[in-house]
Amino acid sequence: PHHARDGFAPRRPAAAAVPDGADAVGVLVGADGSVPDLGFDRAALRAPGFTGAPGTTLVLPAKDGPPRVLVGVGDPSALTEAGVRAAAAAFAGAASWSVRPALALAV
Asked: How far apart are the first and last CA of the chain?
């Protein structure tokens, strides 16, 4: 993994990359700053209660492809490997119906 200071800094993959056969795609989202370009701004994500706090999740339909599961990570600059594992666990819980989940490690 790529490290920034003492935190874990995932590398940014291609924005629209979805693995073939994936039926749910997890997207890490910080508590502040920009949000992934999925057709919703931060205010729209907050309306149903998604804040980007660690462990929070929100399943969104996608116009093309599998649903996106937003997973909160809090402050991305403070994200550690343990935080990534916790985010992966939250994603697995929110996408428990998925048989081919994929988690994008970019914030």
From this structure: 14
